[in-house]
Amino acid sequence: MKKIFLFIFLLQFLLSCTSQEQPSKTGETNIPSNVLNFQGTPTSLKDRSSLAFSDMGAWFAYGFPDTKDKTLGFSGPLLLTQGQGEWCSKSLSKLSLINTTTKQPINLDDISITQTSYNSHLVQVLENKNIKITQTLFYNSAHSAIITTEITNQSNETIQFTPCWNGTLYPSELQIQQDNHTISLPTSRSSALGKIQTFNDEVTKITSTDSTYTLTLNNFELVSNQSKKLTLSHTFIFPEYDAIKEQVELSNSCKNPLKALTKRINEKETQFNKLNNKLASTWQDSIYQTLVAKTTLTLQNNTRIAAGELKHKGIFPSYHYEWFLGFWAWDSWKHAVAVAHYDTELAKNQIRAMYDYQLENGFIVDCIFRDTTLEKHNYRNTKPPLSAWSVWKVYEQDKDINFIKELYPKIVKQHNWWYTFRDYDNDGVCEYGSTDGTLIAAKWESGMDNAVRFDDSKMVQSDEAVFSLNQESVDLNAYLYAEKQYLILMADLLDNKIAAEELKTAAKKLKAQIQYQFYDEKTGWFYDTSIDGKSFIKVMGCEGWIPLWANVASIVQAESVKQNMMNPDYFNTKVPFQTLSANHPKFKPNRGYWRGPNWLDQAYFGVKGLRNYGYQKEANESAYKLIHNANGVLTKGYSIRENYQPITGEGLESENFSWSAAHYLLLMLDK
Questions:
Q1: Is the CATH number of domain 12-21+30-267 3.90.79.10?
Q2: CB-based contacts of 437: which residues, under 8 Å, 6+ apart?
Q3: Under DSSP, is residue 40 helix (H, G, I), strand (E, B) or coil?
Q4: What does the buried/exposed string (b/e) look like for 76-115 if buried means 16 or more CB atoms within 10 Å of the residue's CB?
Q5: With 70 as the cut, is the pLDDT of residue 23 above it?
Q6: N or C: which end of the chain has fewer CB within 10 A?
Q7: Which residues pair with 61 in a beta bridge?
Q8: What does the angle CA 86 – CA 89 – CA 94 come to, to the nearest 5 degrees?
Q9: d(CA 289, CA 471)
Q10: Alpha carbons 118 and 615: distance in angstroms, whole number
Q11: b/e per residue, 590-623, with b = 16+ CB within 10 A?
Q12: Interatomic CA distance for residues 213 and 192, integer angstroms
C-alpha cells in the first residue's frame, strides 16, 4: 500500500506581555554571519532565484523577504515535499499591526530593515524612531520552526495596536479550510494535511478563504520603551513521527524561546569550534572561518531527516536544483567523509541510506528519492566504489567498531559485485556499465556523464542484464584497489585474517596490472584502455590522477603525473585540476559539465594524491588556488557552486552544492 505523507503546519501563538518585560536578545554567536544570502521574495511556487535556510534535517525552508516589501515575516516556507520543491507562499505568516484608533496598518515607509543570517537562526529588524520590531526564526527540531517577534515602543507616547497574522497561498494543491478555530491545509495529490491552530485565548477572530487566512489577536497597549513579545511556530511532521511528542516538546520550548534558541546556538558553536580546531596550519587565518561556516551551512541546508522511501537521514546534492532532491551513491560517500569531522551520526546515516537499497547480489542503487511517484529510484546503474573509503574515514573520527561490523559484510558484497557483473573478459580489471544496456546509463555509472573519454564508447554484453562499456577505466580500478586497502584495514580490525590475506593478494595483483596497463610512459599519464588492455584512450582527464589518490602509482609514475598536473598548459589553471586538460581540442570550460569545468571532488582527489606522494608544496599551492580563485568561495553571501570555470573562476551549474562544500571543508582539514 502506498504510504501517505502528511505535513502539518501548526501555527501556535503563545503571546505574553507585562509592563516589566525587557526586550529579549536575539542570540549572539561567534560564528560568522551572512555567509549565504537568503534574501528574496519568491514570485511563484517554483521560483528558484533565491536560497532558503533550514536546519536539523527539516523538509521546509525559509528566506528573507526583499527589503522593499517591508514584510513583517519570513519568505516561504519552501516545501521540499511538494513537487520538486515549491514555495507555499510569499510569506505564510505575515504580521500586521493595526492602529486601534485609526484602524489602519502602521506606516512602514520610513522604516529601516536589517536582515542577518547565522548558521543557527535568521533575524530581521525593522525600526524607525517610533517603533522597533525584531523577528527571529530558528528550528526547534526537524519538524518545527519557532518565530519570535518583539515589538518595542521607542516613542514618548503610548501606542495601541491590534496584531493580525495573515497569509496567502500560491495556487497549488494546498487549500485553506476553516473549522471553528482550526485552519486546515489539505492537498489533493498526496492526501497531505496541514493545520493552523491557536493554543490560547488571545485570538479574537479567524477568517479564511481557499487561499487566505487572517488571525486577529487581542488589542495591546505599549507605553514608552515597553515591549510586547509574540511567539509563533510552524510545524511540519510526517506520519511516521510522533506528533504528540513533538507538540509537547514544542510547547515547552515556546515557554522560553530564548532558552531554546541559545541551546541551538551553543550546538552550532560547538560544531564550529571543533572544526576550527582541526584546520590545518595553512588555514588558521580568520578569513577561512567564513568558509568553514559556509561549507557547513551549505550541507545543513541540504540535510533531510528520514521520510518516505528515504529510511535514514542524509544530504541532497542541492535543494536549489529541482532534480536533486534525493540521495546519490557517490555523493553520499563524499558527504559522509566531510560531515564525519563534526557529526558522525549524520555521516553514518548518510551511508546507511544508500545501503538500505543494496540488492542481494551486492548492487548499490545510483540514487533514491522520498516519493517515487515523483521520481523513481535509479537501478539502471550504480556509482564508483567509494563506500569503503567513506566508512573507514567515519570510523577514524569516533572509533565505533560496531559501525565497521555493520557495514563490512555489505561492502564486501558490493565490492565483489563489480567482478561478477562488470568484468566482461574475466581478467580482473573492471569496466563501467549498466543494467539496462544503455550507453547513457553506463556513462552515468562513472559519475562523469559526458566525459570526453567516453565519446567513442560502445556497449558489450556478457550475460542477461550484464552490460559493460568496451573500455576499462583507470579510475574505477584505482577505486577498487583503494577499496581493497580499506577492506584489509576493516578485516584486520575484525580479526578476519583469512579475508585480509586474500585481499592483500588480490590488491598486489591489481596494483601491478594498473601500473602496467593504464600508464603511458611517453606522456606520463594514466589513461583508460580498450577492453583488451592493449591500446590507450588518449584523453588526458582527471581520472589520470586517481591512482595517486589510491596510492597505486609507482614513485616514478607519480612524479610524471605530478609534472603534468602542475603544467599550466594542462591542469594548473586559475582554478586547477579541472576535468579535462586545457590543451585538449574538446576542452569546454564554460558549462561543459565533465568536459572541462572544475569539480571539487576530483580536484580534491588530485590534491590528496599529491600529498600521498610527498608533494606538499604543490598540494598547498593548488589548494590555495582552489579556494581563492573560485569566484565567491571566500566572499560572504555567495553560494558554493556545483562546478567552476577553470580559466575565469566563474561558478557554474547548481547553487548550494553539497559535495563542493564537503571537499572545500576537506581541503582545509587535510594536513
A1: no
A2: 459, 461, 465, 467
A3: coil
A4: bbbbbbbbebbbbbbbbbbbbbbeeeeeeebebeebebeb
A5: no
A6: N
A7: 78
A8: 150
A9: 44
A10: 37
A11: eebbbbbbbbbbbbbbbbbbbbbbebeebbebbb
A12: 19
The pLDDT tens digits for 468-494 are: 999 999 999 999 999 999 999 999 999
3-state helix, strand, coil in the chain (%, to 5): 35, 20, 45
Give the pLDDT mean for 582-608. 98
pLDDT over 70 for what percent of the chain? Answer: 92
C-alpha cell at 373: 511517484
Q: How far apart are CA 378 and CA 70, in angstroms?
A: 45
Single out the residue of 424, 361, 237, 304 nearest to residue 55, CA to CA: 304
Q: What are the structural domain ranges in the chain?
A: 12-21+30-267, 303-403
152's grid cell: 518595542
- Read off the pLDDT of each residue in 145-173 and give the average, rounded to a whole number: 91
What are the DSSP E strand ranges found in 332-423?
367-368
| Cα–Cα distance for residue pair 98/176, rounded to 1 Å | 24
Q: How far apart (Å, rounded) are the C-alpha atoms in residues 578 and 243?
A: 48
Pairwise CA distance, residues 164 & 276, whole Å: 44
What is the torsion angle, in degrees rounded to the nearest 10, for the CA atoms of residue 302, residue 305, residue 308 and residue 314?
60
Contact 130, 137 (CB under 8 A): no
What is the gyration radius of the CA atoms in the chain, in angstroms?
27
CB atoms closer than 10 angstroms to residue 321: 18
Amino acid 232: pLDDT = 86
| Residue 229 identity | K
In this predicted structure, the answer to whether residue 599 has a pLDDT above a threshold of 50 is: yes
Condensed to tens digits (0 to 9), the pLDDT of residues 60-105 reads: 999 999 999 889 999 999 999 888 899 999 999 999 999 888 888 8
Report the chain's terminal Cα–Cα distance, integer Å: 51
